Amino acid sequence: MTHALRYEVNCSILFTELPLLQRPAAAKEAGFDGVEFWWPFAEAVPGDAEIDRFVSAVRDAGVQLAGLNFFAGDMAGGDRGLVSWPARSAEFRDNIDVTIGIGEQLGTRSFNALYGNRTGDAPEEQDELAVQNLVLAARAANRIGGTVLVEPVSGAARYPLLTAADALAVLDRVRQAGADNVALLADLYHLAVNGDDVDGVIAAHTGRIGHVQIADAPGRHEPGTGRLPLQRQLADLQDRGYSGWVGLEYQPSGASADSFGWLPRDRRAAGARA
């Protein structure tokens, strides 16, 4: 079988043993040509020097920044995005050009916009705001040929997008509002943990998937530590035409560098074929 999928490392959850700016080089040392990050700064609009250091770390490591999240608030504190959060919508809008600017420098074309938790008793207003903000983000991304991703997430009680159908409904509303460069981020772990029919999503919606992430369940560790049929599902995605990046977004069960044994080294590089 020819393997068309390209694997990359989420350096916000892997290699956390190292300072953030050393992680792209560690991923390269482990045999990968791509990395992705959640928003790697504490603020929505960091200083130019801080951005330059991040861009240099990725470039100097010789890896592709395959994906980048927009600013999502305090992730460790439970925030899951600002897209639908009225009180912080301005922060998200200020962050758009910064995020796309980093993408322009590093050739990144996939930008994950975490939807945001429910904040009160006006979900319809949040959903309307989300469409407005996603359209703004998509138009900005379109200037560099980029795509804005929307992701179902598990483990956050107030996050409203749990299934692929939830996210696809948002994408449909964004398209109706005039932005076509939006797609589903299919994290197979989140979908499975939320009880979605992952095989059904792959069968029906591969063409709408812009990016894939994986972790095993239970535990959210590397493939082979749980019960999810990840290898088969990745093969199904490939058979149905997905040839993009697969982000390794798992918490390693041991040292990060020791967690890649499930993926032969000759399949880790972006151009690898086996």
Task: Note down, in words, how this protein is organized.
The protein has 274 residues and is of the alpha/beta class. It has a single domain (6-267), classed as Alpha-Beta Barrel (TIM Barrel). The chain has 8 helices and 8 strands. The protein has helices at 23-29, 48-61, 89-106, 123-142, 164-176, 188-193, 198-205, 230-239, and strands spanning 6-10, 34-37, 64-69, 110-112, 147-150, 182-187, 209-214, 245-248. An 8-stranded parallel barrel has the order 1-2-3-4-5-6-7-8, surrounded by 4 helices. Helix 3 (89-106) runs parallel beside helix 4. It is globular, with a radius of gyration of 17 Å. The model has no long low-confidence stretch (mean pLDDT 96).
Tell me the overall shape. globular
Assign a percent range to the helix content.
Answer: 25-40%
* Beta strand count: 8
| The top level CATH class name | Alpha Beta
Q: What oligomeric state do these chains adopt?
A: single chain
What is the mean pLDDT? 96
As residue ranges, the low-confidence spans are none
Task: Chart the SSEs and their pairings.
Blueprint: E1 6-10, H1 23-29, E2 34-37, H2 48-61, E3 64-69, H3 89-106, E4 110-112, H4 123-142, E5 147-150, H5 164-176, E6 182-187, H6 188-193, H7 198-205, E7 209-214, H8 230-239, E8 245-248
Parallel strand pairs: 1-2, 1-8, 2-3, 3-4, 4-5, 5-6, 6-7, 7-8
Helix pairs in contact: 1-2, 3-4, 4-5
Which structural traits does this protein have?
HyI-like; TIM Barrel; alpha/beta; hydroxypyruvate isomerase activity; single chain; 8 strands; Hydroxypyruvate isomerase; Sugar_Epim/Isomerase; 274 residues; 14% strand
